[in-house]
Amino acid sequence: MKRLIAILLLAATPVMAVLPDEVLDDPVLESRARELSKDLRCLVCRNESIDESNAELARDLRLLVRERLVAGDTDAQAIAFIVDRYGEYVLLNPKTTGSNMLLWAAGPLALLLALGAAGFYLRRRASAPAVNAGGLSPEEEARLKEILED
Q: Which value, in Å, is the radius of gyration of the alpha carbons in the chain?
């Protein structure tokens, strides 16, 4: 029973895709590389970081990050190098500047627009005159009696 529990606990832990041959000898550089890898998107897996992905491209990006750090780049320089090469899509949390500001603002703006349209509709509906509030006309009542008698 204890073995089963141990196996289930091990299976529940997150599995990192970093292979042993990728790990740097310097623990400080390795921890920096791991932190940077958590913020970079795997271009194959979409919403997975390169730290979690098993794709070949993610491995190449992890190695590229480590190469840049070993070469002496700061964290910002390493990220800038990868963004220059692959575009801003590689960032899991894109910057809120420039043309991305429109994308960040589009959701709240659409919500405000929808709330405004709903308020306008409800206000117009409340002030509209009631349609056919007097019931059936005599001709309609006669026709209804005729239909019901058949």
A: 31
Task: Give φ, ψ of 131 to 5 degrees.
Answer: -95, 125
Tens-place pLDDT, residues 100-129: 788 888 899 999 999 999 999 999 988 887
Give bridge partners of residue 91 from the DSSP assignment: 40
Q: For the chain, which ranges sit under pLDDT 70?
A: 2-22, 132-133
If one counts every other C-beta atom within 10 angstroms of the C-beta of residue 42, the result is 24
Q: pLDDT value at position 143?
A: 93
**Alpha-carbon torsion 65, 68, 70, 76, what sign?**
negative
pLDDT score, position 99: 76
- Is residue 122 left, alpha or beta, with left meaning phi > 0 and alpha meaning psi from -120 to 50? alpha
